[in-house]
Amino acid sequence: MSDQIIPTHTCDYDVAIIGLGPTGATLSNLLAIQGLRVLVLERDKDIFALPRAVHFDGECMRVFQTIGIADALLPNLFVGPGMKFVNAQGKLLIDWQRPTCIGPHGWCASYKFHQPDLENALRERLARQSNVDVRLRHEVFALDETADGVQLRFEDTSRGKLGRATARYVVGCDGARSIARRFMGTELTDLKSHERWVVVDTMLNAPRPDLGDFSIQYCDPARPTTYTRGPGNRRRWEIMVMPGDDAAQLSSADWLWDKLARWISPADARLERSAVYTFHSVVANGWRRGRLLLAGDAAHQTPPFMGQGMAAGIRDASNLAWKLGAVLRGEASDALLDTYESERSPHVREFIETAVQLGSVIQTTHPELANARDCEMAEAIRKFVTPQPKLGPGEWMDDASGTAGHIAPQPRLNDGRLLDDVAGYRFALVALPAVLEACPNLPDEAARADVALFVGEASIREWLASIGAVAVLVRPDRYVFGVAHSVHAVDQLLEQAVLHQRTENA
Ligand SMILES: Cc1cc2nc3c(=O)[nH]c(=O)nc-3n(C[C@H](O)[C@H](O)[C@H](O)COP(=O)(O)OP(=O)(O)OC[C@H]3O[C@@H](n4cnc5c(N)ncnc54)[C@H](O)[C@@H]3O)c2cc1C
Q: How much is the average pLDDT of 344-362?
């Protein structure tokens, strides 16, 4: 993508981001690599200290690759083999296997990580960007839309000093209790799952291979519990709060050790941190109002049974960043920003609804219902496969192969490099050699449209053959914009993707 920005003298920044959690940090990095002027206002001084995400998928790793932190993250990741759901007697109910080899994204399907490590890596990367102004201990308390931007009012809580700044767009990455969402007047659709759980992170004194590498959902109606391993000696347990529990005791060391006794004792590990959470499942209706947008937990929340809450925020950031860049550079009309919610909302909803369904298996606490569930599931072990939803309608052209709207694979090229590294942060056209023979001007056309062109790579030929295509146009967020099934359709594809936006905006 071109990094030439249309001057915006009337606003201090192109984009202001409220909140530097994983969503805000990912979005600011993706905006920074496009040369945009970004302000980040974060209420807290330090990274959130309580236990949260432990898992992300290969698609997230690809976003981290684009940002340039994937290699730095790798040594502190553990490749997860999957998750098993067992009943009170230990019988397998659901088997969710994740391949541990490199998959279609060019990365593994499931990584276990320590959320503060990721957030530190994102912040360190951001600190190297001269076009990003990160202000910690700055709490936003008001947003006022102006003719060509938004004015943010905030307090520098380290000095009690009030301040203002203006930006052409503001993105609320400010978590579940988002102030941006309040100012937008956006309401939430409740997907009806709100259970209380205690989450405890432990550090083993020595490896304990007997605990296993699979995550286990113990679907025991007496006390549903989740075990999951992290990198190194980190182990997590999530323990459902039951009606008879003494609220004052939850999270006390005695209560936790009592619940962990089946697996470990104080001689085996130390308690690192714990928290009591209510796991919500909600989706916001209205992710954009004018120049205000929402991303991450501000726009949706899911129970953690699939490990997809943060991942959804990373996908939001990836979907939104290139669109904001195109609009701010004057390459696209701001209607492109409406495709953000229309594409992302149904996608995230599918993950949340699936997590709620899995949650209803785990969170069955009535003994008779649990018995009925076990009998029903005794017929056959259910093999669970990770959902691969398509984007909702938006900036992509549907086609008969069903490929467009899905994320593209990331093969290695003939020289061993990964496709995204060579493509950079822009559209990429991957094509069969026959396309170049028929359209010798294609390299010039692609260069004019700032589209990376890949022709004749063996791994790409294989993918195109599998979907009966001669060429595929991939967006900067690596989702497929459109597919050409004949040589003649290629020009049209390029035109639709890039020239259409420019003409529309002229
Ligand atoms: C127990 C548990 C387990 C989980 N496991 C997983 C998992 O395995 N995989 C996964 O993908 N997800 C998981 N999640 C979900 C994941 O942790 C969250 O979805 C993710 O952290 C949300 O990131 P965010 O950046 O959108 O919001 P947050 O991390 O909440 O960040 C919001 C930021 O905004 C700041 N802020 C708020 N208001 C203001 C304001 N007015 N002014 C300035 N700053 C403000 C806050 O201080 C905060 O830093 C889990 C969650 C829980 C609770």
A: 95
The answer to whether residues 321 and 446 belong to one domain is: no
Is ligand 1 within 6 A of the CB of residue 26?
no
Which is higher by pLDDT, 194 or 168? 168
Task: Kindly state the DSSP code that residue 412 receives in the 8-state scheme.
Answer: B
CATH number of the domain bearing residue 289:
3.50.50.60
Q: 126 and 132 in contact (C-beta within 8 Å)?
A: yes
Nearest 10 degrees: CA dihedral of 336, 395, 68, 447?
-90
Shortest CA distance to 77 belongs to which of 50, 115, 51?
A: 115
Domain assignment of residue 411, yes or no: no
For position 479, which CATH number holds? Answer: 3.40.30.10
- Give the C-alpha separation, 13 to 164, whole Å: 12
Give the tokens for residue 7.
């001057």
Q: Record the pTM.
A: 0.95
| Domain assignment present for 216 | no
Final residue of a domain: which of 343, 361, 379?
Answer: 361
Pairing of strands 282-285, 300-301: antiparallel
Q: Which of 44, 46, 50, 52 to mutate to test the pocket of ligand 1 (most atoms within 8 A of CB)?
A: 52
CA–CA dist 150, 169 (Å, integer) = 7
Q: What is the mean pLDDT of residues 323-331?
A: 95
Distance CA 149, CA 203 (A): 47
Name which of 3, 13, 9, 494 is nearest 291 in CA terms: 13
**Pair of tokens at residue 268:** 């085996």
* pLDDT (0 to 100) of residue 498: 65
**H helix or E strand, kind and range, residue 93:** strand 92-97
* Residues ≥6 apart with Cβ < 8 Å to 140: 18, 41, 43, 152, 153, 154, 174, 179, 180
Name residues whose C-beta falls within 8 Å of residue 442's C-beta, 6 or more positions apart in sequence.
429, 431, 435, 436, 453, 455, 490
Closest CA to ligand 1's atom 35: 19
Q: What is the pLDDT of residues 53-93, one digit of tens each?
A: 999 999 999 999 999 999 999 999 999 999 999 999 999 99
Judge if the beta carbon of residue 296 lies within 6 A of ligand 1: yes
Calpha distance 49→33 (Å, rounded): 28
Taking 80 as the threshold, does the pLDDT of residue 179 lie above it? Answer: yes
Owning domain of residue 336: 13-70+114-189+283-361
Alpha-carbon distance values, 106 to 72, 334, 413 (Å): 16, 33, 11
If you measure from the C-alpha of residue 156 to the centroid of ligand 1, how many angstroms do you get, rounded to a whole number? 21
Determine, yes or no, domain membership for 105. no
- With the C-alpha atoms ordered 302, 307, 308, 314, is the resulting torsion angle positive or negative? positive
